[in-house]
Amino acid sequence: MWRLVILLTIVLSVDCVVIGRIQDAQLIGDDNEVWFNQTREQCICEMVKSNGLILALNYFVTNQTCQFFSLNATNIRLEFFMNCLVIYVNQSTLLNMFQSTTSTLPFTTTTQTEWIRTGDMTVPRSSHSASVLSNGQVLVAGGTSHGVYLSNAELYDPSTGLWTPTGSMNVARSVHRTVVLSNGNVLATGGYTGTNCLSSAELYDASTGTWTYTGNMNVARHGHGITLLLNGKVFVFGGFTGSVYTNTAELYDPASGIWTNTGSMSVARYFPPASIFSNGKVLVSGGYTGSIYTNTAELYNPTTGTWTSTGSMNFARYGHTLSMSSNETVLVVGGIDNSGYYESTAELYSSSTGIWIVTGSMSITRFGHKALELTNGKVIVIGGRNNIYSALNSAEVYSPSTSNWKTIENLTVARMYHSACLLSNGIIHVSGGQLNGDYTNTVEVHY
Ligand SMILES: *[C@@H]1O[C@H](CO)[C@@H](O)[C@H](O)[C@H]1NC(C)=O
Ligand SMILES: *[C@@H]1O[C@H](CO)[C@@H](O)[C@H](O)[C@H]1NC(C)=O
Ligand SMILES: *[C@@H]1O[C@H](CO)[C@@H](O)[C@H](O)[C@H]1NC(C)=O
Ligand SMILES: *[C@@H]1O[C@H](CO)[C@@H](O)[C@H](O)[C@H]1NC(C)=O
Ligand SMILES: *[C@@H]1O[C@H](CO)[C@@H](O)[C@H](O)[C@H]1NC(C)=O
Ligand SMILES: *[C@@H]1O[C@H](CO)[C@@H](O)[C@H](O)[C@H]1NC(C)=O
User: Fold this and answer.
1) Which CATH class name applies to 120-379?
2) Most buried of 29, 205, 373, 413 (most Cβ within 10 A)?
3) pTM assigned to the model
4) What keywords does the record list, in alphabetical order (predicted)?
């Protein structure tokens, strides 16, 4: 009993509860061994209690069912993905695994991971925001659904895999931008209501589940960029004002709730992605200027409030992503260039040289995908669309050590204009989006 309590404590405190589908494993027991209406922790508890008889489990959040597996050592394929552990083995190895990193495993087999459907959102939505709250829940807000612009918001609880409605924003917002402030509140900025471009901003208080207006931005914007600066202020730049594409930028001070203009970019940029370096400077590249897709890049210095041009990308890009990779290098991926050519290319920007260097290309062209920074400098790109406007169901991972991409399992649903976020325990969470004209409320996770 003592041992059981200790092991469970480890599992729960690490919160790296990662369950991969195990192929070719032998399903043990009969129907009595399939548990309904259980939490993930209850399933793990049952596995630990079995004292080695149950060596792995599948937990389905959709129907809260667990399936237990015994080990058929010669046939289990375990392929580890990311810095998270995927399988539960017997008690003596459990402890070691939670202390080990991905590269050293107590055995030589590999685990197969895959995308797993989790609870659906209450409404289909695309171009919404998704924010990971400090309590681990995911807040999605706004977006569009079959032509309707949404103000409503809902919360995903990773421990149950279910969504519950929470307070609605004061106004419908799509292609708005959000950040989680250092005090845990979520700031939603700008966006498009379906008729108007917004200068307003509002704060979500996770403790009350309500939204309240805060100061207005000086400029209305949607499709702008946003970054939380190291000093806790929120930095927005570019976007469309409702009449022009803008190069303006401004800062929000959470202490006063006031927006102040800061230096403008050298060009207007619509959908400018950004990355922040450890010295606090913000790199912005590409986007639509109002006339062309640009290959230019510039750096914002929060200390001086000014922008400096830096090396240009090798390709003009719009609908691309920027992600911090290893060693303070930034990876730019995909997008569309001025000839209408969709990019599979990727480039790395080094803060020390200020130069972009082409690195390995993705397996396919990709626009409007989502990118997440994983552990060890790896970057995953998810979904998006290709040059025939088809939503993509593929995802691939860039490894800085090999400069190459590895395509992983297909998503269960092809998506563009979806959201993607990394949960606190390393789980990738993908919600909503569009697939070829339709909107989806489906959600899936990858461990
Ligand atoms: C699971 O819980 C639901 C709702 O409480 C209930 O309707 C259902 O019968 C339960 N399923 C089983 C197999 O116990
Ligand atoms: C629970 O859901 C999973 C995934 O949808 C499915 O494979 C499994 O058969 C379901 N379990 C039961 C007992 O219905
Ligand atoms: C493991 O499973 C495979 C495929 O189901 C089977 O052929 C093999 O005999 C099993 N091995 C053991 C040791 O049970
Ligand atoms: C637990 O698993 C490890 C590795 O799979 C094995 O070496 C060890 O003998 C197992 N212990 C028990 C009690 O089954
Ligand atoms: C990052 O820098 C360290 C130290 O210079 C080096 O050992 C490592 O290989 C670099 N990693 C990558 C992915 O370039
Ligand atoms: C992934 O999806 C693509 C496109 O739909 C399809 O061609 C491919 O066969 C799928 N791969 C797997 C492993 O299912």
Assistant:
1) mainly beta
2) 413
3) 0.72
4) Kelch repeat, Repeat, Signal
